[in-house]
Amino acid sequence: MKKMTGLLISILLLLTACGKQAPAPGVTDTEILIGNIQDLSGPMKELGAVLPAGSNLYFRHVNEQGGVHGRQIKMIVEDHQYNPQKAVTSAKKLIEKDQVFCLYHVIGTSPCEALRPLLAETGTPLIAPATQSGTMSDMSRPASDLIFHTDTGYDKQTRILVDHILSEDANAKIGVIYQDDDYGENVLKGAAEVEQATGTSIQKEAYQRGATDFAGQVGNLIKGGVNHVIIAGVVKEPIIVMKTAAAMGFSPQFYGTSPTMDHRVALAAGPAGEGFIAANFANLWNSDAPGAVEYRELCAKYEVPEAYMGMYHFYGFITAKVLVEGLERAGKNPTRKRLVNGLETLNKWDSGAFPPITYSSSDHAGTESVVLVQVKEGVQTVISDWVD
Amino acid sequence: MKDRYEDENLHWIPVLITLVILLPFVIQGLTYSYKYYLFVLNIAGIYIILTVGLDLLSGYTGLISLGHAAFLAIGAYSSAILVDQFGIPFFLSMIISPLIAGLFGLVFGFPALRITGMYLGLTTMGFGFIVKRLIIALREWTHGAGGLDVSYPVIFGYTIRTDWDNYYLIYFFAVLAIVAGRRIGKSKIGRAFMAIRDSEQAAEASSVNLAKYKMLAFFISGLFAGFAGVLFAHTNHFISTDHFDMLLSIYFIIMVLVGGVSSIYGAVLGTLFIVLLDNLFVPLLEDWIHVFFNTETGDIQSLIFGLVMFLFIIFQPMGLYGMWLKMRIYWKLFPFNPRKRFT
What we know:
A: seven-stranded mixed β-sheet
């Protein structure tokens, strides 16, 4: 036993003597290591491969131009299966074992929320969490000084949509159909804010995640005499809701939050989905925005398969632009603190796809506005500039 | 007269405790990323407390539960709410929250009086969903599906923050849970549990009160799981309904089965085996899996777990602990082993 303890102590001493850690983890003279946690095998696995592929497209472009201050960007992707516990384990591995410089584009609200204590403990920044939940930029929460949100939150999206409806029709009766999870929670928060500000009352109908029958909710909205309906769903919900409404002879103007901004909605809803207006936190990948043009050029240059190209691949691409800009501004000898300070100097910075991004030490929300996209003759068409 | 515990070799307990105390130092000596390994061990420690309780319910009493993540959730949410919203000290919450989970166990023990086997499995699974809906509905306290921030555990004025401190907190109670579980298993209660498992009629004929002991099994199991939940909430600092997935309940059952039922030690071995397999060994095979199966590791992880359980049930129904027992007898008898028996 004594021998063992002696051996142990000597090993410890030896390690502390010759152990010399780099000033900033994950940064060498030639490389910056970034950690990304996606859902590669859980309920959102279709996005799991596409999002990092989009980010890597931009990193490849940057690396071929010589990298950031001469350093190549390398990204490690872990899988959390949309489980917050696994997300923390993966983040722990990335931070302690792989020694990444920062975390980037981690997907999901509850996985990102679960990371907060770990981020605060290790001082690791999380850039562009891949969720539109407004809670990410709530500056009263732990580690909020380390999280930089790029997407306009669901609460703000709801507020913007209601404001938009009221500006067109002051006597509008508005209803919301929301998913009763963290996503819906954030939508309700926005609805409560706007109710208080404008004095309107909004009829709220909940559905369970995974529901396929919305006849009850639509029936309640008809009873309530609603003529504008906001659907806070993902892809299949707006399709089913609009088809159910059409079948029940109910034809209000339909709106949707950013997850419903998917071309499949227009495709599958058919005539029932005509006129559907969705809010989106960034420009469309096939639009004329400079970021989208650059994206399509790089896709052509690096021969990205057509199956990958689309809004999610583009989403990975544009958040990578924000990260690279932050790394540029962190200077020649980047530390985590300098990355945070660098990003906080962004002032109405135009990424070419997101609305102008502004960070400060007291506000990490980044953006406040959305574009409105309407389905016209089955095609998604941008009908507004940035609305806030 | 021979004492109840005399047939058990207890000399290993101090050795085990010393090992548990020294392990973090060894890991720290071996690698820089020791915090990650400690973190994985901490998860295992919390699950050990739960699976010991699950073993008492499913292993000893033979009542299957596919809803144990819900008990974990009840313990976690109760403690988070009691400590952070009602200002109750952490150590008091360590007593109250498990009791709350235990009471839920009693309530859900009622159906177990009438139904068994697969139907009980389905009922407990339903229990998991009910608890999830309940947590979302009580949003005033639980913040609904948005999740809840939880404070650090404070014991006698000392705030536990690091993985290192968490490790000692968790394993102190894990060792206690193992000893308690083992003692319950050897006591009158444990014998009654086993009698119920082996034959309800025979147990009843031997004046074992079926209703009382079945409810007691659920209550005790709830206590253990609730206690694990308290540690889970305060060492994770954030809990949400997504943490307590139904799949987790199934993993708990796999842990107990792979380790070997109705021995408590089996539950411990099984939990360590599955958690380490999940976090340390499967990632090692990641590249290999990519090449040969052209899929993500997570996709075939459930397959691997299922396969492991399947193989154990067919070839080693006594689990890891059974393998150890066989090995021990083999060496005890060596070289006079009766042929064929140990091959």
